[in-house]
Description:
This protein has helices at 3-7, 10-19, 35-45, 67-81, 87-95, 119-139, 155-160, and strands spanning 28-29, 57-61, 102-109, 143-147, 167-178. By secondary structure, the protein is α+β, with helices and mostly antiparallel strands.
Amino acid sequence: xxxxxxxxxxxxxxxxxxxxxxxxxxxxxxxxxxxxxxxxxxxxxxxxxxxxxxxxxxxxxxxxxxxxxxxxxxxxxxxxxxxxxxxxxxxxxxxxxxxxxxxxxxxxxxxxxxxxxxxxxxxxxxxxxxxxxxxxxxxxxxxxxxxxxxxxxxxxxxxxxxxxxxxxxxxxxxxxxxxxxxxxxxxxxxxxxxxxxxxxxx
Length: 202
C-alpha cells in the first residue's frame, strides 16, 4: 500500500463519495467557506486530469458586491428570450443571483493551449475539477449544488461577464451551510450504465 492509500482507507473514500448530496442553492445559507478553505478547494480542483497541462477551465467567483449586477444579467437574458416576461418573472430571475454564500461560474476555453485537444476532453477535465471541489467541500461540512440554464448561452450575459468567443459558460457552483436536506435520491444500478464488450454474445 503506497503513502497516498494510507491516508484514507478505501471504505472511508467510498462513504465520502456515497454520502455526497446535491443541495439546491436556496437551501444553502451562511456561513460559506473561509478564505483558507476556498484556497484548499481550488488546490483540489487543480489536481484534475489535464491533457498537456493547458488548464482549459477557470472559475469566476461572484463576490457579494456583484450579485445585483449578476441578477440584472439574468433579467436581461430572460427579457431577450421572452420580451413578454412579467415583472414578477424578471424579479425571480434576479433573485437567482442572491442565493448561497459562495457562487462561482465554471468556464471552459476551447482555444487555450493546443487546439487539437478536443472540447469534450476539456469539459471532462473541468468536470473532474468540479467533483474534486464538491467532495472536499463535503468533507468540510458544506453543501453544494450545480445549476445551469438558458441564460448561460445569452450573448448579453456572456458579454456582461467578459467571456470571449472561445469560452463556454458551463454551470454555476453554489456552496454554503445546509439549511435543509431532502431524502437521498436512489443511485442508478451499476448494470444500468456498465456493459462488457462482447458479453451479450457469450
